Amino acid sequence: MPQSSTVRPAASPPLRRRAIAAVRRWFDTASELDDNDPAADRIDWLRALPFIAMHLACLAVFWVGVSPIAVAVAVALYAVRMFAITGFYHRYFSHRTFRTSRPVQFIAALVGAACVQRGPLWWAAHHRHHHRHADTHQDPHSPGQHGFLWSHAGWFLTARAFRTHWERIPDLARFPELRWLDRFDLVVPVALAAALFGLGALLERVAPQLGTSAGQMLVWGFFISTTVLFHATVTINSLAHRFGKRRFETRDDSRNNLWLALLTFGEGWHNNHHFFPGSARQGFRWWEVDLTYYGLRLMALFGLVRDLKPVPAWVLARAAQPSARG
User: Fold this and answer.
1) pTM for this one?
2) Where are the domains of the chain?
3) How many C-beta neighbours within 10 Å does residue 40 have?
């Protein structure tokens, strides 16, 4: 007697495999989705769950409250990690605008990995691609091509964007310690979160007069500080290509914006940077505040970095011409 129906599994094998792969990539980024996959340019919601959870965790502030110590730690971690992103992920790893020793390179990469903006090799590979194709359809975070929301965060969550393109960073890929940080990019943030929770628990026990708890240190020091850090960083993608002044005529839409420069320690002088990305300094004029450059100069005084590439005289001369201001 023929069967009238066929029993189907609860979930198709491809869907199950995709879910397992997404969870595995939370901890090990070595296996990423193929660029030819039809889903490569869509948001990978399973892969993005930790990123979403980080934002939702900020709401826990209504339960844990606030204390001066917790806020101070949040501000300090924002400043230290912003410098690691701007000074090293960007100006060192991406553009090689100065030199340093291998130990300092690793320590800077370690601090940068705590920003939850993926590993140093991923960051540099992606940013080099951005400069090569700025504000064209191949630029994944061009607001002119893809709109504000996509340029601000949407692109960051696609399967294609999760990949590290090794062919773009042959100078960096030879360091096994950097490859490890890039592959296991969740290790450092989790360690930082655990350390903050432990510090808060210790302060709660030995110095209760401070009014600081483990929950406060975790929520303020990690979740709020990291979330603000992320959105401040990506304003250079979404806002610095829309709002500000154009001193130089470039083939992209980059602009100089004082407020973004203050927020991101000098990255807001974005038109300067796109015109000449080979300088360790992005504020080309004395009044263009560039906190990252000042920090690098201080490190150079102590011999931690060297050979900071200056702004060439011809670039400064071009900047002084009225016709170059746009």
Assistant:
1) 0.90
2) 43-245
3) 17
